[in-house]
Amino acid sequence: MQDQTTQKTTIAVLGGTGKEGSGLAMRWAKADYTVIIGSRDAARATSRAAELNQQLGGDYLQGMDNNAAATAADLVVLSVPYSAHKATLEGVQAELAGKILVDLTVPLQPPKVRTVHLPEGQSAALEAQAFLGDAVKVVAAFQNVSAEKLVDPDYKVDCDVLICGNDADAKAQVIALAEAADMRGIDAGRLPNAIAIESLTPVLLYINKQYNVKGSGIRITGID
Description:
Blueprint: H1 4-8, E1 10-14, H2 19-30, E2 34-39, H3 42-56, E3 61-65, H4 66-72, E4 75-78, H5 85-96, E5 100-103, H6 124-132, E6 137-140, H7 147-150, E7 160-165, H8 168-180, E8 184-187, H9 194-210
Helix pairs in contact: 4-5, 5-6
C-alpha cells in the first residue's frame, strides 16, 4: 500500500489507449494511484478504461478526453506517437501549467523505426519543454521499456528506466512511479540527455529483430 500522499496523486495518461500507456496505467492503478486514461475521444478512453478494469478485476481506472484528464490530474504522462506529439501538447498546454509532464515519446520515423532520428529540437522531450516553457516540468522516461512486457501487470519487467529532467524533485517523483510499476528508476541527468535515451529505442528495436526477441531492455550495472 502507498502512503497517503501517493494515494491522493492522480495520474492522467494521455494516449493511454495504446499498449505502453495502458500497461503503465494498470500498474500504477494496482499501486493505489488514481489513474485516468486520456484520449482525443472520450468514449474511446472510457471504453478502454472499462476493458482494463475488467482485466484487473475491479473498478480502478476511468476514461476522459485529454483536456478533462489533464485538468483532473496532478501529474500527466504523455504516451503518443511522435506524429501526434505536437498536436497533443497544443491541445492541453493550458491544463499542464504548474504540473509535471512525463514524456514517453520517441521520435521514430516510419518505416525506418530501427534507425535513430533526431528531430529538429533534438529530442521529443526537449521540444515539449521548449513549447510548454518553465510553467511545466518535463521529465523524459520509460522510452526503453517494451510495451509487450508492460501489458501484463503481473509480469516482472527486467529493465531499468532511465529518467532525465531539469528538476530534481520532479525526477524523484518519476523514479517513484517507476518503482510503483515494478521497475528500477535511474536518474540519468538533465533533460538534454533525453537525446541519448530516446535514441536507444530504435537501437533496441533493431536488436529485437536481429536476435528474434520481444522486448530487449536496458540494465545499468554497478548500482546496488
